[in-house]
Each structure stands twice: as C-alpha cells, then as structure tokens.
Amino acid sequence: MPAANGVLVVAETERGGLAPISAELLGVGRTLAEVLGGTLTAAVLGSGVAEAASALGELGADVVLLADSPALGEPGVEAALEALTPLVTQEAPDILLLGHTPDMRELAARLAFRLGTGLTTDCTALRVEDGVLVMTKPVYGGSANAEFTVPRARPQMATLRPRAFRPAVSDPSHHAEVRHVPVEVGAAVRSRVVETVREEATTGPSLKNAKAVVSGGRGLGGPENWHYVEELAASLGAAVGATRAVTDAGWVPPGLQVGLTGVTITPDLYVAVGVSGAVQHIAGCSGSRNIVAINKDPDANIFKHARFGVVGDYKQIVPPLAARIKELKR
Ligand SMILES: Cc1cc2nc3c(=O)[nH]c(=O)nc-3n(C[C@H](O)[C@H](O)[C@H](O)COP(=O)(O)OP(=O)(O)OC[C@H]3O[C@@H](n4cnc5c(N)ncnc54)[C@H](O)[C@@H]3O)c2cc1C
C-alpha cells in the first residue's frame, strides 16, 4: 500500500467565484487530512479562475493547483478529464474528493476508470479508519445507508452530496502555496457544443442550493392551485419543488422534480404540501434538516420523515401560514 499522500479536492467555480461545494470539500478534506497526517490540496480548473486560488487558501487548502486555460472554459468535462488525469497521477493523493454535481459526477466516473480505482458517489459521510476511507451513502432510495471502502486501490475516490458536509470557514490570514499547472488538452476533446438551452426561468431562489424549499404534490388537486405553493415559498424566501406526479402531469417544469429521478436537495427547511412521501420522493429530500408536512391523511408516509406535521386540507392551512410568516418577517 502506498504511503499516505494527503487529500486532494477538486474545487468548482461559478460566475467567477467558488461554488458552495468547494468549501464543503475543503471542510471534510481538512478533517481527513488531519487524521491521515497529510497535506490538503485543492485543484481548480477553468478559464479565468486565478482569483479562486486565494479563496481556496483562505478556506484552508495547504496547496492550490491552478489549471487556468481558455480550453477549460468550455462546457463539458473532456478537457477537465485530460487536465486532471496527469495531475492526479503525479500528486498521487490517498483520497480524492469531488462534488456530486452534474459535471463533477461525470468527471469523477471517467477519472476513476482511467486511474483504475473505485469510486463511491453521492456520499453523505466520510471517515478514516485504520488509514482506510469509509464512505457512507444512502441506498434503496434513501431508506438505508451503506458503507463502502476501497482498501486496495488508490486514490480512494468519492463524490460528496452538496450541503451534506459542514463548509470550511474562511480565514483571510491563511494562504496556500499556489502552483500553476500546464494544461494540454489538444485533440483529446472530441465533442463540441452546438447549442445551449437555458433552463426555464423560475421566480425565487434556485432549487439546487436553496436553504428552504416548498414542494407541492398531487394533493393540490390541479395546476390551478399551484399558487398556494408559490405563495408559501415566497413568504419564506424559499425555492419551489414538486413531486414526479406533478411534473409528469405537466403542472410545472421537470427541473423542479425532487427525488430519485429528479434533484437531490439538502435544505435546512423542506415543506411538503399534498405530498404522500413515496420512497422515490424521499430519496431526494431525506437530507433536509427539517421536514414539515401538510397532508390530510394522518397515515401518509411523509409524516414518518417529518419533524413537524399538520394534518388537514392544505387550502385551510397554507394561506394563514403564509400570512403569519409574512407578518413575523415584517
Ligand atoms: C422508478 C421511479 C422513480 C420515481 N422517481 C420519483 C422522483 O424522483 N420524485 C418523486 O416525487 N416521485 C418519483 N416517483 C413517483 C413516486 O413513486 C410517487 O408516485 C410520487 O412521488 C407521488 O407523488 P405525490 O406525493 O405528489 O402524489 P400522491 O402519492 O398521489 O400523494 C398525494 C398526497 O396528497 C394528499 N392530499 C390529497 N388532498 C389533499 C389536501 N386537500 N390537502 C392536503 N393533502 C392532500 C394525499 O393524502 C396524498 O398523501 C418515481 C417512481 C418510480 C417507479
């Protein structure tokens, strides 16, 4: 078994700054690096991402590997895969962590194949036991947790569920050693972007990283009642989500679907209105810190997962609740 060579995290940027997952990767990365007694390194790849290097240092990285090239600014992961493969081979980290985000989960799977190592995706907890990374992830649609190890291969690779880990706290007095990494991707990038389609604009915060989400289910009765969900969400400053029954029926766009075959979210507050709590729906929201359910059926499965529940017709409950929240926020 090779000697421990620390933890490498692959940071992500958005709109010129660091994406929230980067601080989460560094938070857990620091804990693991301390247990292993190794270095915490962050790699950042992209075009015009030099400023992210100092932010990563402030978030606790000992070393930042900066791969800054216009070739890495294009959508898709092929260029990043070409840049990252030699970088990881050279650094030979004991543990390699990426976010379980749309681009990174594709990148992680392809990178693991190239490196000939295992990969555990969508992890919600990580710990080191006897030098081996124990990776926990929800299975069976979120009804159980399973632990995985890759004892004989290196690096031990995991993708991390967004908002499942405590983010590192920025310390402006902490600086990383920044190393510029040459980027050669050339002919390896075989796909090209022919069209970009923007996600339909929704009002309020985006579902993926929202701290509060209000979801509506089939129990609303029809699209004409969707405004109940939107009004409650607006009162809380929350994003809007939906069950698959609702998106399949075309009441709202598919991008709002929470669940196994939709978006996985981990807000502080999840309010489910007229949602039965099917196992496939719970798979996408079980990481929420507090679930509040409003359902007229006291035996609905959602109540098994809810911290607070209201049994009754949502039409009687949602309007006064939204009005009271607005009043308290004034
Ligand atoms: C392979 C597979 C993948 C799937 N993936 C997903 C997924 O990603 N996300 C997802 O959500 N589902 C998914 N599903 C579907 C899932 O199994 C459920 O069918 C779906 O979640 C049910 O949606 P619902 O809770 O809106 O509807 P229902 O199950 O019909 O529940 C409606 C609820 O509203 C309550 N209600 C009715 N009237 C009122 C009222 N006036 N006031 C208050 N409450 C009321 C009822 O008591 C009931 O509990 C998947 C299914 C399969 C087979």
Compute the CA-based radius of gyration.
Answer: 21 Å
| Structure classification | alpha/beta
Number of domains: 2
Strand order of the largest sheet: 7-11-6-1-4-5-12
CATH domain class of the largest domain:
Alpha Beta
- Our estimate of the beta-strand percent is 15-25%
**Helix-strand pattern:** EEEHEHEHEHEEEEEEEHEHEHEHEH
As for the CATH topology of the largest domain, it is Rossmann fold
Indicate the mean pLDDT: 92
Bound compounds, each kind once, are:
flavin-adenine dinucleotide
The beta-strand count equals 17
Shape: elongated
Span between N and C termini?
60 Å
Question: Can I get a quick summary?
Answer:
The protein contains nine helices and 17 strands.
Keywords for this entry:
alpha/beta; Rossmann fold; 7-stranded parallel sheet; 5-stranded parallel sheet; 9 helices; binds flavin-adenine dinucleotide
